[in-house]
TrEMBL record:
InterPro entries: IS150/IS1296_orfA-like (IPR052057), Trp_repressor/repl_initiator (IPR010921). GO terms for molecular function: sequence-specific DNA binding. It comes from Streptococcus sobrinus W1703. This is Transposase.
Amino acid sequence: MDKESNDWGAFLMKLSYEDKVQIYTLRQSGQSIRQLSQQYQVNPSIIEYLVRLIDCHGFDALTKGQKSNYSLEQKQEMINQVLVDGRSQGEVAVEYALPSRSLLTHWIAQYKKRVYYS
């Protein structure tokens, strides 16, 4: 991605492992979310999610999940925690160490489409 453009990265996966470690290290040393989002050309919510994910699961979470296949039961469990139990998507995504919150958002949208339009 062009570092001069204003395009924001959509997914945490667009950052390399090294980028993610560096972002976390810089954030822990006091650099602001906004500074990091500008430096790495990603939305601030991506930085926030990354920091929460590493705080909860450590750096192992960065290598897990990117190529994981989640069973229908696992997806339904996560969807229910949001739609039935009222938990936030971010909270559930971090708990399950999803590579991005948007993955859960996508599953919920697909679920609603299937339920409401079938």
